[in-house]
Amino acid sequence: MTDLNAFADALIAAHRSGTRAATDAPAPATLAEAYQVQSRIVAGLADLGPVAGFKTARKSAAPPTMAPIRAEFTLPSGAELTLGDEMGIELEVGWKIIAPLPDPAEAGFDAALLRCIQPVPVIELVGARLSGPRAEDPLAKLADFQINHGLIIGTPLPNWDGRDFATVTARMQAGDTLLLDGPAEVPGGSALATLVALLGQIGTHCGGLQVGQIVITGSLHPLTYVRDPCEVRGQIDGLGSVSLTLC
Asked: Is 150 exposed, middle or buried (0-12, 13-18, 19+ CB in 10 A)?
């Protein structure tokens, strides 16, 4: 297996400094190596806070990808955040874990799972920590937490009736720019199935899924980068609203 320590150390330094790393150190060549780097980064940043959740995505029959979300920029709706040069934003359906999750192999798993989670509207913050050719390498990006920067969390849906989210009606706006207004499909076609797929795969990776964490399930619109200060507002009908100010 490739020695990935130098690559992981460059990303750890980039997380700490808030800058991008230009490194020619060997990068991951497999999914397993990308996840190895993720784990090393989480361990190297343990003093800055816990893992606040995970982003995940499903594509066809392939196993879902997964990446940890750091707590430092996991903030409540209405938060203000320094923009810097730019910030990527995505409106998504999330799940808050409110009780220890059941084993997928146990009898009655589906009903038990619904008692352990609540749906929540979120805005994912996106920002890479790599520059140069590595910034376009899919496995390097996955190792870099799938370029997650943080998360803005709305209010979990009270009195949730257990329904899934597949096609939703949603609105997303950054300043005067409308990014989404109307029907949108949750990536993979089911937010609940995406969570279940992650639960069946993650095991103890980066600490595993824990009570209080948020799992996000993919953007309802194309990733958009914001370069000017503005208010960002998202709304998912039947779920709720979420917002932040980039300044």
From this structure: buried
